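Case study 2.
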Amino acid sequence: MDVNAAVAAVAAIAGVLTGVIAMLAFRWSEREQNRPTRSSLHTDAVLPPGVDTVLSVLRSSAVVLDEADAVVKASSAAYALGLVRGGKLAVEPMLRMARDTRRDGEIRQVELDLPRRGTGRGEALAVSARVAPLGSRLVLLLVEDLTEARRIEAVRRDFVANVSHELKTPVGALSLLSEAVMGASDDPEAVERFAGRMQIEATRLTSLVQELIDLSRVQNDDPLEDAEPVRVDELVAEAVDRCRHQAGAKQITMAAGGTADLSVWGNRGQLAAALGNLVENAVNYSPARTRVGIAARSVTAPGGDQIEIAVTDQGIGISDKDKERIFERFYRVDPARSRATGGTGLGLAIVKHVAASHGGEVTVWSAEGQGSTFTLRLPEAGVARDRAHQQHAREIRAGGAGLDDEAGRATTPTSPESTAYETLPAPEVLP
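Prediction:
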């Protein structure tokens, strides 16, 4: 009986202990579930109320650091710029600023040049970093990307400098030539020679001013306000007629061909100027007794049919490094040759802006010593008209949206087969 009683007592004690252990385990598990996680501490308990919402709508890249320099909150833009890696702020100058601000509470701001992530290129990312205390223990870092703003400012400075230089050259030449004419008043041959040079410089100055006006117009005006169907063969004929004298002087054969009865939708004057610039460049940069071809065709594209107008020459060609810059204002592949031919360096910039404002693009294929093919791609008349109507309706609903004149940046095809005029129907030789 004593043995049975002892066994019963042990079993009862074991049951009580099991129950106590189970209850303690349940309480511990419940406490662990209710304990705030690190992420909830970072986003809910640590950040002051409303800060998370404010940071989510800021255009700047935002990073919040705690007292241990750990990242509490970071926007997606901060990760994209490479500011945050592995839960830490990866830019040492910004980290030092954050520590100094946490120590004395002062707001600091600095501009830095950071290497780009994953590009193997030497280009720097220009940023402006501002650090401020956020509460008693946190620090807020706001980073603004200034790369594009700096690029635009550099373009503006270069444009002003180039305009000043280009205008000063012919004006200075006219001044010197006029003095030479006055000094040679008793020498009719010298007067005639100097007067001829003055006429050349005056023509060059007139062309430069006109192209500056044209460039300003295509950048600021909406070509689709006065848009109309424009026949491509009429544009080609006008461009050929514009360059007929220069081509004849160099005995260059001009050939027009391709598909007939094509039309685009846009501003006739701007389209004629753009195609005329391409043909004029082809003639100016081609050796004597060569051939310049202009042809058009319709091609199928994902957004609708497009019209390709290709201008091909047998000139000096363009190197790979120059192809990336030829559509910049005042950039010349060969400055000495450009001045000899009267080039201003604005023709291709005008072509790029006209193509972009009409919803198209301009591309180039070229090889040194083998010539070049410039292709102007524009939406077909019906497709472009429908797009223009849709854009107009969107602008009315949105209160008038602007047109991005950089939408059609120039690209470089890898081969001439898709653009060279020889692949189109045989052209008609123009005398």
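Confidence is low (pLDDT under 50) at residues 32-45, 399-431.
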